[in-house]
Amino acid sequence: MFVFTLKFELQNLSYNNNRSSLCAIWNLLIVYDIENIWKDIPARTGGNSIKYRAYANDEVKCILENCTDFHFDAVIIAFHTGLRFKDICHLKIEDVNLKVGLLEIIPAKTSRFKKAVFIHLHNDVIDVFKKSLAGKDSSDYFYPEAVEQYGSGSFGQQFKKILKKANVKDNRHGKASFHSLRSTFITNCEEAGIRRSVIQGIVGHGSPHMTERYSEIDYRFCIKNASIDFKVSVKRNCFFLTYIVDLSDTACRFRREQK
Questions:
Q1: Exposure pattern of 102-118 as b/e (b: 16+ CB <10 Å)?
Q2: For site-directed labelling of 86, which of 6, 103, 106, 253 has its Cα 20 to 30 A away?
Q3: Contact 246, 120 (CB under 8 A)
């Protein structure tokens, strides 16, 4: 009866949200070898049903080889922070503390909640920001030209051409676009053994169900092989581990100061 109601009576967006919630609950039961019966039930079209694939490291390298100027910087930032394209375009110098390597912003998409995200920066991102600082004041944007062009649709078209040159395409996991770098970041974090609740806080998702949509990790495999995967992933993505630990400490300090 419940399945009948879920399938026929709910609007697309509510249906997809409920399906994601049920899938997340069943994931918790994996440790008891209970199969997730909701995982293979497809989401409905319409609403927020677009899924973006994650890129392999070789694909990111090919993309960067075909990027110049702002696009190159934007890909580096998105790959290491998971920031959305709009937030990258509108980054201000005052949002970044290069001395401690910390970025603090309120994402545009969730600005109504007035909830900031705190992101410790990889050295590659710090280098990109330092390069863009020349001749700018603290209240300036890092990329003022990008702010002016944002909304014209030109960046999306240009990035499609970059993907075509890099031979990076859509696949069964989802659409290939700039937003796929957000999926890449989340997937890499999970590969490094980072808790999903922590990743959720970094990328500014309102629920773990949304974070789950962005990940391409087989959750059953991760739980059953956690100790093995963690050791391997730390060697391959060591900056993620330090990055998350530092971020958690910073967030705790911030909450104490606010109180």
A1: bbebbbeeeeeeeeebb
A2: 253
A3: yes
- Looking at residue 68, its amino acid is T
As a whole number of angstroms, the distance between CA 37 and CA 63 comes to 37
Residue with tokens 């949002």: 95
Amino acid at 200: Q
Q: What is the pLDDT of residues 198-249, one digit of tens each?
A: 888 888 887 777 777 777 665 434 443 443 333 333 333 444 433 343 433 4
- The answer to whether residues 183 and 52 touch, using CB atoms and an 8 Å cutoff, is yes
Residues 6+ apart with CB under 8 A from 100: none
Cβ count near 212 (within 10 Å): 21
CA distance to 112, 195, 255, per residue, from 206 (Å): 12, 15, 18
- DSSP 8-class letter at 174: B
Any alpha helices (H) in 113-179, and if so which ranges?
123-132, 144-149, 154-165
Give residue for tokens 């290491």: 80
pTM of the predicted structure, to 2 decimals: 0.68
* Pick from 225, 166, 152, 162: nearest CA to 193: 225
Q: In whole angstroms, what separates CA 25 from the centre of its chain?
A: 22
Residue with tokens 């997730």: 36
User: In this structure, is the dihedral angle defined by the CA atoms of residues 55, 216, 209 and 37, taken in order, positive or negative?
Assistant: positive
Dihedral over Cα of 203, 204, 205, 207: its sign: positive
